[in-house]
Amino acid sequence: MPMLLFYRLLFTAELFTAEFLFVYRLRKRKLFILRFAGCLCLGFAFAAVLPLFYNAFYTTFTFLLLSAATVPMLAFCCRTSWKNVFFCVIAAYTMQHFAYGAANFLLSVVRQGISPIFGMYFEGNISFENFDGFTVIMILLYILAYYVSYVLFYVIFVRKIKRGKDFRIRNAAVMGLVGLGLVVDVILNAVSVFYSDSTNFVTVLMNTVYESLCCIFLMYIQFELIRTGDLKNELYITQSLLREKERQYNLSKENVELINLKCHDLRHQIRAVGKGKGLSAETVREIERTISIYDAEVRTDNEVLDIILTEKSLKCKMNDISLTCIADGKSLAFMEDTDVYALFGNALDNAIEAVMRLEKDKRNIGVVVRAKDGIVSVSVRNNYQGEIRLNEDGLPLTGKQDKNFHGFGMRSMCQIAEKYHGACSVSLNNQTFNLNILLSNVV
Questions:
Q1: H helices of 275-381, where?
Q2: What values do phi and psi take at 378, rounded to 5?
Q3: CATH of 302-443, one of 3.30.565.10, 3.50.50.60, 3.40.50.720, 3.40.1260.10
Q4: 113, 218, 244, 280: most buried by Cβ count inside 10 Å?
Q5: pTM of full prediction above 0.85
Q6: How does pLDDT run across 345-397, given as a tens digit for each residue?
Q7: Sheet with 375-383, side-by-side order of all strands
Q8: What is the pLDDT of residue 401?
C-alpha cells in the first residue's frame, strides 16, 4: 500500500474522531451511531479513490477536500444548522492538525531526526512485515500524542459546548477568516514538509511551535465567537426585561395617578348618589378600565416570571383571551433570569399567537408551574385550530405553513430544558395544544 494512501486513511480516522467529539454534543438525528459509522466508511472510500500525486499543493488539496466532504456527512448525522456544522468541521480539523504537529515533534525527538510521519508524504510503499519493538514504540507514542492532544482540546474547549446548543455565531466573516487561517496553516505545513530541510531538528521544532500556536489561536477565536453570541443574546434578553419592567412600572404609576384622580371625582359622585343620583354608565366603565392593571398584575414570588406574566396578561385582556396561571415562582430560583424570560416568553407568545385565530369564547390559555422532589414541571396549554404536524422528535414542524403554530422559539425552549437536565414534549388532544417541560433544580 502506498504510504500516502495509508496516511490519507489514517487522517480520515483522526478527523472523524475529532468531529465526533464536537457533534456528539449537538442535537443528533435518530440512529446517530449508525449514520456516523456509515459516513466514516464513506470517508474511507473517498480517501481511497482520490488519485495520488506527490507535491505540496495537491496533497494539501486532498486533505482539505476530505475535510470538506465531511460537512454534508455531519449534517446527515445531526439536526442543526449548516453554520454549526461548518464550525465543527473547522474546529475538528484544527484539533487534528495540532495533534499532528505534536506527534511530529515527539517522534522527531525520539528518533533524533526526521519524523516518520514526514516520510508518508513521499513515494514509496508501507510494509507491515518488518515490525520490531522500536516500531511498536513509535506507534504507541504516535497514539499517545493524539490522545493527549484530543483530551487537552476537549477539556479546554469542547466541553464548554452545552448539549443541544445553537452556537449563535453572528459574525460569519470572522468565521470565514478562521477557516482561511486554517487553510493557510495546512498549506505552509505541506510546503515545509516537501521543500524545507526536514532532517534539521531546529526546523522541525520551529515548524511545530508555529503550527501549535496557530491552531490554539484559531480555536480560541472560534470559541470566542460562541461566547460573544451568547453574551449578545443575554444582553438582548436583559435589556428586554428592563424595558418591560420599566413599562410595567410606568403603567402602574399612571394608573395609580388616574385612580387618585378618579377617587377625587368619586367624592363628588358619591355626594350625588347621596342625593339620589346614580353614577353614569360611562363613569363606571372608565373606572373599570383604570383599575384593570391590578387584575392583570401577577405575583408568583419570582420577579422575572411576574414581569412576563403581567405583560402577557395585559396583552390577553386587550385581545379577549382568558389566561389562568397557577405558578410556584420560587421553584424557578435556580434558573438564570434570561432563561426564565426566554422560556416563558416563547411559550406564551406561541400560545397567544395560536388562540388569536380562534373565536373570542375559545381563546383560553393555562399555565401551571409545580415542583416536586427536585423536578419542576411547566405546563402551557391552549386551544388551536387547523392541523399541527410534528417532526420525528414529537415537536411542531417549523415550515411556512406551520409558522403560526408554535414554530418560533421551540428549539430555544428545548435547549433551555436540556441545559437544566430536563426535556420538552408536546401533546395534542381535541384541538388542545399541551407544552410540557421538565427541569431539574440540581444543575
A1: 281-296, 303-318, 337-355
A2: -120, 125
A3: 3.30.565.10
A4: 218
A5: no
A6: 889 988 998 899 898 888 999 999 998 888 999 999 999 888 888 777 677 77
A7: 322-327, 364-372, 375-383, 432-440, 423-429
A8: 47
